[in-house]
Amino acid sequence: MSAANGRRIAVVLFNLGGPDGQADVKPFLFNLFNDPAIIGLPGVVRTPLARLISSRREKEAQANYARMGGGSPLLPETRRQAEALKAELQSRRPGDEVGVFIAMRYWNPLTEQTAAEVAAFAPDEIVLLPLYPQFSTTTSQSSLKLWNETYRGPGVSRTVCCYPRADGWIEAQADLIRAKLAEAGDRPVRVLFSAHGIPETLVAKKGDPYQEQIEATCAAVAARLGPIDWSICYQSRVGPLKWLGPATPDAIQQAGRDGKGVVLVPIAFVSEHIETLVELDEEYGELAHEEGVAPYLRAPTVSLHPAFVGALADAVIDGLGRTGVAPFGPGCQGRWKACPCQRERRAA
Ligand SMILES: C=CC1=C(C)c2cc3[nH]c(cc4nc(cc5[nH]c(cc1n2)c(C)c5CCC(=O)O)C(CCC(=O)O)=C4C)c(C)c3C=C
Ligand SMILES: [Fe+2]
Ligand SMILES: [Fe+2]
Questions:
Q1: 57-70: per-residue pLDDT in tens?
Q2: Do 55 and 173 fall into the same domain?
Q3: Which of 69, 163, 208, 219 could connect to 202 by a Cys-Cys bridge, CB 3.0–4.6 Å?
Q4: What is the pLDDT of residue 161?
Q5: How far apart are CA 242 and CA 295, in angstroms?
Q6: What is the DSSP letter of 110?
Q7: Is 121 within the bounds of a domain?
Q8: What per-residue string of b and e applies to 22-35 under the rule 16 or more CB within 10 Å gives b?
Q9: For residue 184, is it within any domain?
């Protein structure tokens, strides 16, 4: 089926998902820890372990979600981004019929439901677009793998693997940080780019490009800001493995020892949720206060920033323009080392 004057284009946005209410916390955590991309053990061990961890973690996680009204704001935030992207794409391609869908990895709307909705939309073309600027086996690859195993409808698929240095993404970040630097005035501050951590072994043994892409994003944002004091740190550590470091709390303490305030910048998230509103604002805000780190300012996530929405639209249009069966990263569907983005990286 084709739109009257053009093509039917489905854009599928991928994100992690979050519980809608308190009763969803445990099954959401179970889905997360039962993902082989998160716990790389055979199912016979992983599934009971996921049950155990989700039971043990439930109360504490529920208390954290309760601080945001009971559930995660991630889905409503992502819906607003989907609407903004749809409006932008419709204005850029008035002849096409565009549908923007959301597939969450661990909570509703889950991949299976979205795959059925996309199939019913009967697209001519599909662009798979993770809401993770930096590619990781734990996030984008996990979502894309499940999508490719699940979707059985029509349409030619193209994948946007990642966009760690996309112009609009970098500009949106820089713009939001500039506002916080202006708020700091002449008080000395360090810009701390805080990324969600992953276990070190994923980088060392699986060659996960996440850390390298985080570093690429931070360098690009810092370059656009001009001379500033900046460093990178990693938040949200879970479990017994060694994670990427330095840890964000340590970096905040270090800033204090160096006599600096902090502008904290979430650099791997594109919307607000538990990891920004509770962890960065409340938990680390308290730590900064105890450590006498002042000012402690947190840049908002890029959310609906027009430059960011523009970057997503650019990525979709770029993806649509790629021909053949190797668009923007089929390599990222489990074979990301062969992806064009990795070739660009090696050439840089
Ligand atoms: C760049 C984004 C993310 C990476 C990389 C990532 C890896 C990762 N996460 C966990 C464990 C948890 N993550 C949780 C919440 C959460 N994680 C991300 C993003 C990334 N995770 C987001 C956007 C969210 C928020 C969802 C929401 O509900 O608002 C949680 C649940 C919260 C908690 O209990 O702390 C867990 C657990 C691991 C183990 C991992 C890599 C191995
Ligand atoms: Fe996470
Ligand atoms: Fe790629």
A1: 999 999 999 999 99
A2: no
A3: 208
A4: 84
A5: 30
A6: B
A7: no
A8: eebbbebbbbbbbb
A9: yes
Residue 246 lies in a domain: yes
Is 273 in a helix, a strand, or coil?
A: coil
Q: Examine residue 37 and state whether it is found in any structural domain, yes or no.
A: yes
- The packing angle between helices 167-184 and 306-321, to 10°, is 170
In this predicted model, which residue has the larger pLDDT, 318 or 113?
113
The type of residue at 163 is Y
Tokens of 55: 């039971």
Residues 6+ apart with CB under 8 A from 307: 167, 168, 169, 171, 172, 175
**pLDDT tens-digit map of 173-225:** 999 999 999 999 999 999 999 999 999 999 998 888 899 889 999 999 999 99
Boundary (domain end) residue, out of 298, 317, 335? 298
Report the separation in Å between the CA atom of 136 and the middle of ligand 1, taken as the mean of its atom positions: 12
The torsion of the CA quartet 36, 37, 40, 46, rounded to 10 degrees, works out to -30
Q: Which of 12, 44, 66 is the last residue of a domain?
A: 66
In angstroms and rounded to an integer, the radius of gyration of the C-alpha atoms of the chain is: 20
Atom of ligand 1 nearest to the CA of 18: 28
Instruction: Strand 230-235: give its sheet, edge to edge.
Output: 230-235, 189-196, 261-266, 296-298
- pLDDT tens sequence across 103-157: 999 999 999 999 999 999 999 999 999 999 998 999 998 998 899 899 999 998 8
Residue to mutate (ligand 1; options 238, 277, 283, 303; most atoms within 8 A of CB): 238
pLDDT, position 73? 97
Q: How many CB atoms lie within 10 A of CB 227?
A: 6
Total number of domains constituting the chain: 2
How many angstroms is it from 345 CA to the middle of ligand 3? 10
- Judge contact between 210 and 132, C-beta under 8 A: no
Q: Which domain holds residue 206?
A: 167-298
- Reported ipTM: the value is 0.94
The CATH number linked to 271 is: 3.40.50.1400
| Pocket residue to mutate for ligand 1, from 234, 275, 278, 280, most atoms within 8 A of Cβ | 275
State the Cα–Cα distance between residues 175 and 170, nearest whole angstrom.
9
